[in-house]
Amino acid sequence: MRAPGSNLAPAAVAVIALATSSDAEGTLRSAVEASSLASRMTIGAAVNEGYFDADDGSYSQTAASQYNLVTAENSCKFGATEKVQNQFSFDACDQVLGFAEENNMAFRGHNLCWGVYNPSWVDDGGFSSAELTRILQNHINNTLTHYKGKAVAWDVVNEAIEDSAPYGLKKNTWNNITASGDATDYIDVAFAAARAADPDTLLFYNDYNVASMDGWSAGKSDAMFSMVKGMRDRGVPIDGVGLQMHVGCGYDLVDGVRANMQRYSDIGVQTHVTELDLTCEQSASYDCTWSGEVEEQQGRLYADLLQACVDVEGCTNFETWGFTDAHTWIKGDSHPLPFYDDYSEKKAVAMMMDVLASAN
Hints:
Helix content: 25-40%
Number of domains: 1
Mean pLDDT: 91
Strand order of the largest sheet: 1-2-3-4-5-6-7-8
Pfam family, one: Glyco_hydro_10
EC number: 3.2.1.8
Family: Belongs to the glycosyl hydrolase 10 (cellulase F) family.
CATH class: Alpha Beta
Number of helices: 11
Shape: globular
Catalytic activity: Endohydrolysis of (1->4)-beta-D-xylosidic linkages in xylans
Protein name: endo-1,4-beta-xylanase
Strand content: 15-25%
């Protein structure tokens, strides 16, 4: 399971400017928009367009009132948008964009290149390195052209690094793009294509088990930092990194997360917390006996991680992967998100609002 005073470059501080359109008071969205953080960071959630009408509209209402950024959980990925070669369908992804625009929210794109969730024609096509290069460039160009000027950021490459030492790149179809013989060729190709297609959107690398530079994730976290710094040094247009955190309530590496965010900020790279959920038990089933004590522990960790983001100028988005236990990718009775099945708030919401209020 996935556990996961700045000198920022000009592109890396171009956080989207959002008017305050939410009428709901006492929400995460109103708290961040009323705070001194409003021009620097967004607070977001992954959403699924299939749930927009769910639960008598509670899903859409909660998302729009509580958050000012959304990411499509699955509908903008390669496998969803180019199921047949060179035949693009953005209908589902557009629904998420439309929801964002209707509610004056930022839209964050996820993702353009991943070793999984590809259509079968990509993985089974037996393409040469040159053919794969053209396929990847064409997909990125068409996708970013369609969303040009509409997405604040894109996860250009997703989850490429192995989980264990020596932390090379995972073996997948895109590894066959090796024009120079360098294993990072396809990553460089993807970022260059993205920048050519949209000069203004922020370009991110996103991964898990990398959030803290201390503890059990230190090895992969260091490998990712080294990769990103190398990209920056050779002029690859990368603006930020996404730190996934699918972890349990007992996660105790918050100081390492803060330090990791700071070292990226120090080299001009933004950080986004992109995929955060906190299961109440880090076990094979993720099930637990829910109690007030567990709720308090979960809420404190949500607040502590948000505080780490607030503390580092280069952290410009704090985002949970979903927002209600009614609709989460994690199976079992694990209670991972800030809102209960019935959309009532857990203690995490008030605790996070306190962090945002204290930023003033």
